[in-house]
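Sequence design from tokenized structure. All designs in this work follow the same two-part layout: the structure record, then the generated sequence. An example of the structure record is given first.
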């Protein structure tokens, strides 16, 4: 029987997936006005005060990290926050929100592959099948099963950038699990300081490489609302809901809700961006979600069957 608190968590996690899906839509629209580094900087600039306020309220003793925690936080910030969002916003300049969300949905499967390759984690046969299924779904998205594209191996550059974003985030997931345990870094501390590192570095790189001032001065109010949406709803509120869910129902059950993100993104992209939805995209989404579900289920779930 599901308790009332658990029901609340399940409802809130569905809401969080809608917020995260909305980031693909808002990011797609904002990417037309700002280059990737500038957009990354602005998104996290508005997030920083809120996330540090949360850190001060909930974990005041961890407001200042220990000296030994700074190098791992820097690595996590560069790879998982700056690297992921740079490629994410770059991808959205060239590909659809639907494609980017479907490729992004393979994060758990790619993480599982990297864990086996570099961390020597054991993998059960059912998980291998799930990984293979999800990657086939991505292959369908990348190629549209077009013989000419498959034969020439020429893909949409935006889809390639999104694949690199997934690789960054999957690497971050594995490193953060290792670093947070080894250096006793709390999730809230890790989030706050990776956001800070990303904001500083993306700001410096943006000024040096993208000359953001003209775009900032010319941006319409709509664009600022899109950035604020990503900063507040997709980053802070979505993160807080996820953290609360992990505390109440556990990490494995919480992770399953990620499978709803591409579904929500497809619906929002069709309704808001008027993107075209083909039968192949629907089938690809089902293949990816099914494969990721198999690949990311806890081992004990398989053993209980």
């Amino acid at each position: 029987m599901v308790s009332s608190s658990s029901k609340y968590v399940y409802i809130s996690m569905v809401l969080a997936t809608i917020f995260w899906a909305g980031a693909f839509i808002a990011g797609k629209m904002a990417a037309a006005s700002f280059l990737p580094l500038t957009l990354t900087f602005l998104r996290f600039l508005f997030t920083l005060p809120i996330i540090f306020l949360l850190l001060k309220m909930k974990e005041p003793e961890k407001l200042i990290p220990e000296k030994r925690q700074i190098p791992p936080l820097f690595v996590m910030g560069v790879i998982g926050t700056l690297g992921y969002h740079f490629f994410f916003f770059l991808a959205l300049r060239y590909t659809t929100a639907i494609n980017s969300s479907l490729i992004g949905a393979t994060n758990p499967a790619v993480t599982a592959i990297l864990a086996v390759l570099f961390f020597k984690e054991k993998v059960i046969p059912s998980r291998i099948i799930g990984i293979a299924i999800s990657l086939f779904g991505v292959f369908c998205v990348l190629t549209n099963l077009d013989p000419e594209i498959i034969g020439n191996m020429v893909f949409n550059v935006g889809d390639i950038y999104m694949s690199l974003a997934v690789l960054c985030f999957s690497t971050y997931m594995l490193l953060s699990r290792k670093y947070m345990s080894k250096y006793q870094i709390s999730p809230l501390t890790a989030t706050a300081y990776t956001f800070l590192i990303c904001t500083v570095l993306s700001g410096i790189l943006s000024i040096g490489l993208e000359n953001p001032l003209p775009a900032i001065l010319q941006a319409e109010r709509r664009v600022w609302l899109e950035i604020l949406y990503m900063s507040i709803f997709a980053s802070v509120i979505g993160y807080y809901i996820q953290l609360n869910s992990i505390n109440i129902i556990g990490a494995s059950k919480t992770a399953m809700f990620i499978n709803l993100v591409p579904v929500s993104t497809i619906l929002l992209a069709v309704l808001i961006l008027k993107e075209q939805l083909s039968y192949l995209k629907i089938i690809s989404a089902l293949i990816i979600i099914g494969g990721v579900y198999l690949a990311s289920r806890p081992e004990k779930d398989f053993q209980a069957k």
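Residues 4-304 form one domain. We note this feature because it recurs in several other targets discussed in the main text.
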